[in-house]
Amino acid sequence: MRRSLAAAFAAVLALFLIAATPGAACACSCVEQTDAEAFADADAVFTGTLDDIDEEGFQFGVADGPATLEFEVDEVYKGEVSERQGVVTIGGDASCGWRPPEGERYLVVAYFEDGELHAGLCGGSRALDEGPIVFDVEAYAPEPGESGLAPFPVWPVVGAAALVAAAAVWIVLRRRRA
């Protein structure tokens, strides 16, 4: 009985560790594009000051998990953008995530994914002091209000709970048969 319990626990632990282990590290390399190309591919383009970074914590022991960049928006060039707009970015530089310093003004080129705006190193977002904005469109004011923050990623918690529940059911069934 103890052997089967230990084996079940080891199997569940091994599955969780395999699922939770980060993949191989990859360096980010971007294909260069013009502002016009980035603009054409984007769902939203705006300028604003980064005033907060909401780190979503450690992702399976990796310190550079997703974060929401909160911008105070000045002007909008494309899309529906709020006065205070959150933009989700993935991990650090190695995974093409974008972690600019707070308090500076940026051109943000973003796309929608799962109902949220996302941006990264390769999308065309940059500091405004890196060059003039070259779009053939007029800027307009942002929409009043705030965008929502990114939700907490619950799939890892749900997956772990499902594994524990499956192991418990398996143990109970084994006990009843014995």
TrEMBL record:
Signal peptide range: 1-27
Source organism of this protein record: Glycomyces paridis
Biological classification of the source: Bacteria, Bacillati, Actinomycetota, Actinomycetes, Glycomycetales
Transmembrane segments: 154-173
Keywords: Membrane, Signal, Transmembrane, Transmembrane helix
Protein known as: Uncharacterized protein
